[in-house]
Amino acid sequence: MKNQDLLVIAQEFGSPVYVYDAAKIEKQYKRLTSAFDKVEKLRIYYAVKALSNISVLKLLINMGSGLDTVSIQEVMLGLEAGAKPEIIIYTPNGISLEEIEKAVKLGVQINIDNLSILEQFGTKHPKTPVCIRINPHVMAGGNANISVGHIDSKFGISIHQMPLLKRIVENTGMNINGIHMHTGSDILDIDVFLYASEILFNAAENFDNLEFIDFGSGFKVPYKEGDIETNVEELGKKLSKRFNEFSKKYGKKLTLAFEPGKFLVSEAGQFLVNVNVIKQTTSTVFAQVDSGFNHLIRPMLYGSQHEISNISRPKGRDRFYTVTGYICETDTFANNRRIPEIHEGDILSFHNAGAYCFTMASNYNSRYRPAEVLWYKDKAHLIRKRETFDDIMRNQVIVEL
């Protein structure tokens, strides 16, 4: 997508607006599958939580992707998008047995991450194939909020609880067809990933009927020029070799699975905003835009950095700005950032806005959530309408007082 394309989109659909480049998503998908082309059976489950628009799900399903879901609603979205139940894996956390049983009725792959639910489920549904999520106790990830494989994490069954896990499986006679881990997001050191993989291989030896081993994801993408990222090609070469060795030892051709979200869609997304006000104080020049953490919370929640471009004046003289929103709370997107000179009315683009951006948007301050647009085959397609006041009121019930 060129700047002129984005400016036309901002004019046609208004701002703020999320725009996703389908070609970039396809490129990332092919990059990942090519990295593991030495594995005979590979399954990519796209992590729906990263970007759950049904048109994006359809796009990925058409590429051959399965779906990684964490709620019954995401399962339903996946089915609505046309995914067959057998290519959907359902990995919830801290939910009731009742919700898991709803997923069973829909025919998707169940992935359980705690002993209590595992025992209850195995007692009631011993014949239903189940994957087990293991916590390898490996600290990985770029932020404490997205590091999920460490010893104090709420996710997964501790690797040290393997004897108890095996006893539950034996007592219930349940069918364990997969084993799974996810250590965290923004993983740079592939040796840490490979170390955790060895723990998963060792755990897999405790089960005789496995069909797949799921290594989660967490691959880091670049957020600025010169930024480092996970070397998936090197990981593919090393892990593929080790996986094939393990499959041969196991005596069965297992499926290697991954659950990428950010890796597939982050760089494909741009978030376009309009500059409402340029405000200079005694020490700071603020560029205040028509959005806030109600639309893009990652910089405030995770301390993440999104590159910001002035697509209205890309060749302007660089100046330093603090970019903030219109929310009645501190909502700083960028502090003292060098950006081509900004005027009121300019359109700014936040890069890497494809993952965990719109999906974490809210109606805080009773603001509307923005529109979403898919740039597909050199054409802009509206894939979500901008909300209106009717949407704010839709589920509210007015009582007579």
TrEMBL record:
SUPFAM superfamilies for the chain: Alanine racemase C-terminal domain-like (SSF50621), PLP-binding barrel (SSF51419)
Function field? Specifically catalyzes the decarboxylation of meso-diaminopimelate (meso-DAP) to L-lysine.
The metabolic or biological pathway listed in the UniProt record of this protein is: Amino-acid biosynthesis; L-lysine biosynthesis via DAP pathway; L-lysine from DL-2,6-diaminopimelate: step 1/1
Cross-referenced Gene3D superfamilies: Alanine racemase, Lyase, Ornithine Decarboxylase, Chain A, domain 1
Enzyme class, spelled out: lyase
Which GO terms of type biological process are on file?
lysine biosynthetic process via diaminopimelate
Q: EC number(s) of the enzyme?
A: 4.1.1.20
Task: Provide the binding site for pyridoxal 5'-phosphate.
Answer: 218, 356
NCBIfam families in alphabetical order: lysA (TIGR01048)
One GO MF term on file is:
pyridoxal phosphate binding
- Provide the protein name: Diaminopimelate decarboxylase
What does it catalyze?
meso-2,6-diaminopimelate + H(+) = L-lysine + CO2
Q: Which residues bind substrate?
A: 298, 302, 329, 356
Residue numbers carrying N6-(pyridoxal phosphate)lysine: 49
Q: Key word Chaperone present in the record?
A: no
One Pfam family named in its UniProt record: Orn_Arg_deC_N
* Residue ranges annotated for the Orn/DAP/Arg decarboxylase 2 C-terminal domain, each copy included: 18-354
What cofactors does this protein use?
pyridoxal 5'-phosphate
Q: Which UniProt keywords apply?
A: Amino-acid biosynthesis, Decarboxylase, Lyase, Lysine biosynthesis, Pyridoxal phosphate
> Which gene does this sequence derive from?
lysA
What organism does the UniProt record list as the source?
Answer: Aequorivita sublithincola (strain DSM 14238 / LMG 21431 / ACAM 643 / 9-3)
What family does this chain come from, according to its entry? Answer: Belongs to the Orn/Lys/Arg decarboxylase class-II family. LysA subfamily.
* Stretches assigned to the Orn/DAP/Arg decarboxylase 2 N-terminal domain: 23-266
Q: Does the keyword Lyase apply?
A: yes
Q: How does it assemble?
A: Homodimer.
Q: Where is the active site?
A: 328
